[in-house]
Amino acid sequence: MKRCVIVGGGEIQNLSYDRRLIQEDDFIIAADRGYAHCQAMGLQPDLLLGDFDSYEGELAAACPILEYPVEKDDTDTMLAIKVALEKGFQDLLLLGMTGGRLDHSIANIQSLVYAVIHGAKACLMDEDLWISVITGGQQITVPYREGFVLSVFAHSDRCSGVCLRDLFYPLENGVITNTFPLGVSNHFLPGKDGKIAIEEGIAVIICNREL
What we know:
It is a single chain. The chain is of the alpha/beta class. The chain has two domains: 4-127, Rossmann fold (3-Layer(aba) Sandwich); 133-209, Thiamin pyrophosphokinase, catalytic domain (Rossmann fold, 3-Layer(aba) Sandwich), CATH 3.40.50. The chain has four helices and 14 strands. A ten-stranded mixed sheet has the order 4-3-2-1-5-6-7-14-9-12, with helices on both faces. A four-stranded antiparallel sheet has the order 8-13-10-11, with no helix packed on it. A hairpin with a 5-residue loop joins strand 10 and strand 11 (171-177). Helix 3 packs parallel to helix 4. The longest helix is centred in the middle third of the chain and has 16 residues, at 102-117. It is globular, with a radius of gyration of 17 Å. 33% of the residues are buried.
């Protein structure tokens, strides 16, 4: 099945980079102010949704729109993820999800976790950042990126059976918790992809450019 790309209203520092990530057959959902990013990238989303409290421009008449009240439990990103899952998408790419308000960035990471624990493969990206999530029994290979560091954080109270391989600081059958950042700032080995696996729990994996 096709991939779903969700464009949020966070910061996008390099629009051309994000535009290159989007494939011709992707289903694109613009979440609220994410529509402005789509316009700047020359994209017509397949669906536009949100409460539109942060977007004040004209809405495309040809684009299907789902409008929600401002006072609601779900963020616009969460609404977009739920719609994507309802439509059967199991591969999600989230753009424009960080920068600006820290609480929004954290909420978007939690929404990413929601997508993964509901069966989707999902990641959040921009030019300097890649975030994904794995749950118990899963493993992931993180492609080598020169000048980037790799961190693994427990989203659940505890992650056990944690294995970090082909990284500068390896770990075998370890335990990480959400109260101590043991997995922060690991490093790639030259030219090698990092491999991460856990037996139990939920882990958030963050790969970002080293300043």
